Amino acid sequence: MSVELPEYYFRVRENGAFVFRVDTENRQRRIELDQIANVNIRNGEIKPHGDRKLSDQDMAAIRDWMDDRRDLLAARDIDDIHRAIDHMNLTTHWANSRASDEQLEEVTDALLLAMHDLRTVLVRKKADRLMKANAAKE
After folding, report:
1. Which phi and psi (to 5°) does residue 76 adopt?
2. Which domain of life is it from (predicted)?
3. Which pTM does this prediction carry?
C-alpha cells in the first residue's frame, strides 16, 4: 500500500458514486472514510451528505472525478462495441465451421432478429448522418 493516500475516495455505484473524505489524522492512525456527498453521473447532481457544506476544493475534486468517470465509461462503451464485432466474427466462424445442426437451430432465430434490429438502426442512423451532412453543404 502506498504511503500517500488520496484525499477523496469514490465508491462507485451504477449511476455515480458515494464520495468520502479519507482521514488518517486521528489518534489511532486508522484510515477513516467520512462520507461527504452522493454523486449522480447521469444528471450531474452532487448532493452533500447530511448537513455537510462542500468546500470549493471538494466540489472541484468531485467535478474532476465526474469528468474522468464519464470519459472512462465512454471509452468502455466503445471498447465493448469493438469486442461485440470480434464476437460476431467469432460467431460467424463457429457457425460456419463447428456448429452442429442442433446448436444452429437453438440460436439462429435469436441471432437473425438481433442482427436485423441492429442493421435497421445502423442504416437509419447512417441515413440521418448523410442527410445532415448534405443539408450542411447546402
Report:
1. -65, -40
2. Bacteria
3. 0.76
